[in-house]
Amino acid sequence: MNKFYTETLHKLETEINDLEIETDHSIQRIEAVIGIILKCLSEVKKYVLNRGFKNIGEEIHFFKYQKPTIVSKLIYYNAIYKIETKKPYGSKPIKKYLNDELRKLKRYFDNNIDFYKYYRSNNSFLDERFFVRGKHDIKLWLDTIYFETDQSFSTSHDYKVAKIIANDLIQVYIENQLNTKNYNKISHESPLNWTGNKTALTELIYALYSLGVFENGNVDIKLISKTFERTFNIDLGDFYHTFMELKSRKINRTKFLDSLRDALIKKMDEQDEM
């Protein structure tokens, strides 16, 4: 399962990334991306239903982490499509519209605060009720959409996890729109600038993402990269392509991380000698 999922997710992210580079018109690009994600989900569903799961643990892992990662991309791009196609004209109406969208995200968070806490804390004591098919409990924060889904490929809470992941990205998108258009009176410009090269920062971001140090590992790489871009006033550009170049290195694939380690040890040694 893990090998199939990893290869499928890599293929999906590569195709999405290629579209974002090649297609200028944002609406057309989003439509194409949604089509790719739907095709990917269909392939994953077919594989899962044909193969099944080896045990409860594998089923929980799939519906808690793997399926939501893909579905969150569908939710995100569909939300962006709606935002862009319904956006009004004029700076003041746009500002109000975008802030209304942010308030919708806040309402979803407020209405699901208990599950947010459970998921963000990386708890597992209710996983067999949340992420095993046919185990739904109406008393445990159920979304109505669950009753409309194919329950052979859905659990009571995998969509809710996908929604949490997507909402983080949607919030970043909306806030970037507001800041880019100078709709916010308060400046959020960071006083710190990244003066190293972009490849080094990309290497650092992927290392932190791989170790799962943000939100117990329950966060999308794109959200992490956008946060670093805002914090250190840098445009990473096609960070996914940069990571592919890092992977293809024949020698020293973690050059920057190795230099960080060496610099820290040197600093410690110097202070020990003082």
Keywords:
single chain; 274 residues; mainly alpha
Helix content, binned percent: 55-70%
What's the total number of strands? 0
Backbone CA Rg: 21 Å
Tell me the overall shape: globular
Average pLDDT taken over every residue: 86
Fraction in beta strands = under 5%
Class based on secondary structure composition and strand pairing: mainly alpha
What is the straight-line distance between the termini? 54 Å
Spans of at least 5 consecutive residues whose pLDDT stays below 50 are 183-188
Give the H and E element order. Answer: HHHHHHHHHHH
Described by strand count, sense and barrel closure, the largest sheet is: none
What count of domains describes the coordinates? 2
Number of helices: 11
Could you provide a short overview of the structure?
The chain has eleven helices and no strands. Helix content is 68%, strand content 0%.
Task: Give the SSE map.
Blueprint (H helix, E strand, L loop, with lengths): L1 H21 L3 H26 L4 H31 L4 H21 L1 H8 L6 H4 L27 H23 L17 H14 L9 H11 L7 H9 L7 H19 L1
Structure in words:
This protein has 274 residues and is an all-alpha fold. The protein has two domains: 1-188, no CATH class; 189-274, no CATH class. Helices cover 68% and strands 0% of the residues. The chain is built from eleven helices and no strands. The chain has helices spanning 2-22, 26-51, 56-86, 91-111, 113-120, 127-130, 158-180, 198-211, 221-231, 239-247, 255-273. Helix 1 packs antiparallel against helix 2 (26-51), helix 2 (26-51) runs antiparallel to helix 3 (56-86) and helix 4 (91-111) packs antiparallel against helix 7. It is globular and about 65 Å long. Mean pLDDT is 86; it is low at 183-188.
